[in-house]
């Protein structure tokens, strides 16, 4: 009995869920970055489809061995879950297009604007409120995005002016589309989990199963399957390495697939997104250190404001939890 109760408490612990999600996210980021950096790899949808397929095979194998258990496939539940898979592909595609036109720090910082959309989406769909301190963290996010875009304009202007601003505008169009699809994915995911009472493994099963056909169709529509591009993505010299790393990333996706649903279930969509944003800030720093992004005062300021926004939001959530803890005993006495 004690072991069961401790297992349940861990499963419902927000700090444990957040920590597990952070570790899984960092591992996935490192693996994906390696795959995408080998040669000229641009089959993002195929990479995600392989990850989903490997993840699906592993959890079905564990279920058949009696190690884990989750609900069987149901066509009615699949139809209701399908829009989440479509939003997932839209999120992946628009992210890859935004990254094509924007620098890594600018992309990462603007991604944080999604948190504001999710926060107010949660107020509309799930009730609750946005505290003044949480609002301050959102304002800091907006400010960091403005500073980042200003740095982007000033660094792009010295080149070919018309071309630079054409790319600038197109990049921000894809960034805006990515923010909308990302917010829609996270909010619909939480809504569906609440309506269906899915366990974390149920969420994992349906997410991976339904994502595969959508990702394959998305790849056929949006990705270049010409012989030249296939040869460019899978050159003979590194072909086996790329395939091996794609399969390995699929094994790592087990962690991110499970902990994403877990984190959304025990915390909130906004907290989940804020944790993801803070995870990506080191990636923004890596763009300054390892890539050709110029190190400027504006870039560094934007990243600092992003970190500060995360700290302010964390403090806001702690204060909000303390208020709940203070209210609950009095309500019980009444």
UniProtKB/TrEMBL annotation:
State whether keyword Coiled coil applies. Answer: no
Annotated transmembrane regions:
16-35, 41-60, 81-98, 104-126, 133-151, 171-189, 201-222, 242-264, 271-290, 296-316
Q: What UniProt keywords apply to this chain's record, in alphabetical order?
A: Cytoplasmic vesicle, Endoplasmic reticulum, Golgi apparatus, Membrane, Sugar transport, Transmembrane, Transmembrane helix, Transport
Coiled-coil regions, chain positions = none
Question: Looking at the keywords, is Chloroplast present?
Answer: no
Bilayer topology reads: Multi-pass membrane protein
| Gene Ontology CC | cytoplasmic vesicle membrane; endoplasmic reticulum membrane; Golgi membrane
Indicate where this protein resides in the cell: Golgi apparatus membrane; Cytoplasmic vesicle membrane; Endoplasmic reticulum membrane; Membrane
The protein's role, per its UniProt record = Involved in the import of GDP-mannose from the cytoplasm into the Golgi lumen.
Matching NCBIfam families: nst (TIGR00803)
Regarding protein family, the annotation reads: Belongs to the TPT transporter family. SLC35D subfamily.
Q: PANTHER family, alphabetically?
A: SOLUTE CARRIER FAMILY 35
Q: How does it assemble?
A: Homooligomer.
Protein name stated in the entry: GDP-mannose transporter
Which gene is the coding source of this polypeptide chain? Answer: VRG4
